[in-house]
Amino acid sequence: MKQENIERTITIKNLAECLWCAPLAAHWSFTEWYVERNIPFAVNLAAYQKRGNLNSVPLCHILFLDDLPIGMGSLKENDLWSRKDLNPWLASVYIIPQMRNRGYGKILISSLEEKAWTMGIEQLFLFLGQHEQSKLSHFYSALGWTQFDEAVDNDGKPTRIFMKKKKLIL
After folding, report:
1. Residue 2, SS3?
2. pLDDT for residue 5
């Protein structure tokens, strides 16, 4: 059987443009980072419903492959409770497992960085979750992020903080 090359369309929408995705984004977030924590799903859902802003933090981008949502990422304040002096944060970057390692995360992060820069934000921070810290450290470093500090995460576990500054165009 002959296989045909099928062109796929990648689209990134602000959550404000697809509010129906808020429960899906909350579900992804809950199952990836909160299922083992004592934080109810309703709290997570409410947080995503507040990310439907177009030009202010908090906001969320949803990545679509054709018409199927396959990932998300956010810009938010006070993501790391032990470092409320650092803001804003790139947070909740998630690609569904079946679509990982295909470049979609890089595309999503780039869109969020560009949004931050166009809103006048000069630098962003992120912290690594407990899963695959070494792999994620290499991933973000390859995207131009630099390790900024170490801290404890919101569960009291050690984490690394990364930072990226807006590039000055001369």
Report:
1. coil
2. 65
